Amino acid sequence: MSVPRRFRCWLVSACAMGMAGLFPYGAVASTPSKAVTPQLVHRHGAVQLVVDGKPLLIRGGELENSSASSLAYLQKLWPRLEALHLNTVIAPAYWDLIEPAEGRFNFKTVDGLIAQARAHHMHVVLLWFGSWKNSMSSYVPAWVKRDPARFPRAVGSDGAPMEILSALSDNNLQADSRAFVALMRHLKQMDGVQHTVVMVQVENEVGMLPTAREHSAAANAAFKAAVPRALTDYLKAHRSKLAPALRKAWRAHGERQGASWIKTFGKSVWTDELFTAWTEARYTGQVAARGKAVYDLPMYVNAALVRPHTLPGQYPSGGPLPHLFDIWHAAAPAIDMLSPDIYFPNFSAWAQRYATRKQGFFIPETGRVSGAQMGANALYAYGALKAMGVSPYAPEFLSAADAKALGQAFGVVQQLTPMILARQGTSSMTMLLPPAAFHGKADLTPQQVTMGAYTFTTRYRPKGAVSIGAKNEATADGVHAALIIRGAPDDFWVAGIGATLRFSSASHGTSRVGIASVWEGHFEHGHWLRGRQLNGDDTNQGRWLQLPADQFVIREVHLYRY
What we know:
Blueprint: H1 5-20, H2 26-30, E1 39-43, E2 46-51, E3 54-56, E4 58-62, H3 71-75, H4 78-83, E5 88-94, H5 95-98, H6 108-119, E6 123-133, H7 142-145, E7 153-155, E8 161-165, H8 170-191, E9 197-204, H9 217-224, H10 229-237, H11 244-252, H12 261-265, H13 269-294, E10 299-304, H14 325-331, E11 337-342, H15 347-355, E12 362-366, H16 371-385, E13 389-392, H17 400-423, E14 429-432, E15 447-451, E16 454-460, E17 481-486, E18 491-497, E19 499-505, E20 513-524, E21 527-533, E22 545-546, E23 553-561
Parallel strand pairs: 4-5, 4-13, 5-6, 6-9, 9-10, 10-11, 11-12, 12-13
Antiparallel strand pairs: 1-2, 2-3, 7-8, 14-17, 15-16, 16-19, 17-18, 18-23, 19-22, 20-21, 20-23
């Protein structure tokens, strides 16, 4: 195998650093210690999850809600998860199983999950299924469910109690917090050195359904009382950066302090939602803060997203959605990240709205598209949006075809992880993915990006095989993605599926660009092993690079100017 010296030197250095986890993370990386709790670290424009001094890029899979409730059932799933090239499972810690009787804790399911993950060399992100799961309170213990006088329910606009614990109840908060603190204390005792568990999600898809806010006596009284000073102080301090709708409503009513919710923001269903966001974020944030005081793992909350043209209560009102980010930041400062559960086809549009936050970007759930599209979306999140992790939902139930495609994509990510981590937030990595509308139609307009001295123009390949001499480069079928990583000035890695790349000079001069060589291949243990050199018909006589339409691949590309 012959690799140009400048490319070989860069490759060996980059892969060695990545595999050894020796990126310069200041004190965290220079003195790696298993006593250091997993943490979020700002590095070269990205926020990365650092575990035992090494950055971790999560190739995750969130288990279906019930899969981790039986250790015998869970044991059967690991071969499927390993075949997907996962390095992390995202799984629930169930309040009702952990505290079946008040004050009596049983961590058998959590301990079993962690033990099995360790045996299969995977990390764990724990989901706290506490007061709320998809808005409802289905995972609270039976002793809570059976005592609504002590643990009150939210009340709907019709005056009827719902299967939702009230966020206005201190008893509810105290019970949830005590259980969560017990969980975090137990994690510190049994995992505080090995760090199998790297993050925790607090509650699950918080929000109010089917009304925009609860209407209990306590909630009505709080709604009529003054908006908490902590919120209006936050709005005042961040007035120039508030979400547009929130800023407009607050300014339209005189930027008041000490007034009711209606007098502060106006009478509307949107004001009802602001109230819900504050009360549920405050509750969730206090649960998180009390757990962090015991064991300070990174913590996030996840959001159920919004269909177009829907109103609060038609979707989970008050969750950590983009138009409510300010409320959540003011109410729950202990929460490290707000994360989207992306099940809509317009993946990139939603991902971009969450990736702009400075706290870090993690996608705990995604799905309802093909396995290949999930893989393409994951490449985009890692390569373009600095994601620390992507996690398709219920990977144990993927079809064989979807599992194969997603496994290919995660296999490519696994091979490129050292380079991705070293370049997130820099100009030496970019990603091209056709944007899709909510209804699913992709915009296959050619995309263009410049990196160093070169401009890459991406068109999209046919879904089927391309016959020799075929002229068609684009079709509406298939999945398309291209991740571009620069090594030396003229040398690149290109990974993806279903894309055709042409190359031109980034300058306005007369220089032209040619392909010196293209190699297929793969990484093994950090070493690049070349396959065939792709030339002639495989590059249309040096005119373009084609990524196969039916599989995720990596290509080593060398360009020149003349």
